[in-house]
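Good morning C.,

I know you're traveling, so I'll keep this short. The sequence:
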Amino acid sequence: MGAPAWGGFVRKFLSFAALVLSSSALAATPPEGVEFKPRRGFFTETDIGVFFTLGGKNDYSNAQSYLQLGVGYDLTERISLGAHFGLGTSAANCFADYQEATGLCALSDNFTVAFGDLTAAYHVRLADRFTLTPKLAAGYTRLDPAPVEGEGDPGRAINALNAGVGIGIEYATMMDHFSVGADLLARYIIGPNIPTFAVFPRVKYTF
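The tokens, ready to paste straight into the viewer:
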């Protein structure tokens, strides 16, 4: 191979190597050239999904809409704390006794369930933009009207504590500040002894 031919081969090889290396670098980093890190800090979120209860004389309620609003703060890359307000409805599930004469539930088998909870989430990184988010929740619940026997007016509202666990997945979108995801959250209302479940997509904005 002559010198001109050999020189052409070397130039082509170096060009090819440079192309491969530059492609690898682009694949490992976003267009800005900086390694991607999910935005962390103060955040708000809006969640809309479905809600239902288990137990009771009907075993489970009909699925109803669920709305949740929340604010929180990422303490570290992995740990987040939040405060959330959620509102759902248990439909067609009797937690009292059925009346023999009428066959109707002695108390309302349709009632709203309002949650005011503190939550803690742990972020497990699955990929650059995907995280798995196991969660704990605990707080205050209001049931209106009361679905279980107690003192006072049968149409009254009652309050109780709740505790729960959840699992979710979160994706940091290409739009800075915005993340989307989906959660399954199971909570137990202590006292009335009512298990509840909520499944919902999430839209999160981190400042």
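Safe travels,
E.
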